[in-house]
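Figure 6 in text form: structure in, sequence out.
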């Protein structure tokens, strides 16, 4: 894969390289906060709120579990805590999958840009 990238890099001019560098992949936090400004931002906001509430409720359930002297009640609180932490992880998994989807779409756009630049360059040399 690196050989292909090197060949593409050699075929591009300095201006083309600068254009591609300006479309580099953003960092993790930029991608995460970018979800909050995407077309599906309202779903992400609901997931962030639900995830936060489920996490806090899970912490409360753990605290109740540790403070309860009754074994049956402790098991109930423990099961509730487990469920709430699973909800938290489910929300975070959805957001992670959405970030990966955005990353793939960004990479496809970069490939389209590279193909377009190469096509324009080869068309002008003829």
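Output sequence:
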């Amino acid at each position: 894969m690196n050989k292909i990238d090197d060949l593409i890099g050699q075929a591009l001019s300095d201006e083309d390289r600068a254009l591609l560098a300006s479309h580099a992949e953003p960092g993790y936090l930029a991608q995460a906060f970018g979800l909050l400004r995407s077309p599906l931002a309202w779903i992400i906001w609901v997931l962030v709120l639900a995830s936060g509430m489920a996490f806090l409720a899970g912490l409360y359930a753990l605290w109740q579990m540790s403070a309860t002297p009754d074994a049956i009640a402790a098991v109930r609180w423990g099961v509730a805590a487990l469920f709430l932490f699973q909800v938290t992880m489910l929300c975070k998994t959805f957001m992670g999958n959405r970030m990966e989807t955005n990353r793939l779409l960004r990479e496809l756009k970069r490939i389209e840009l590279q193909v377009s630049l190469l096509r324009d360059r080869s068309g002008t040399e003829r």
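Caption detail: The mean pLDDT is 84.
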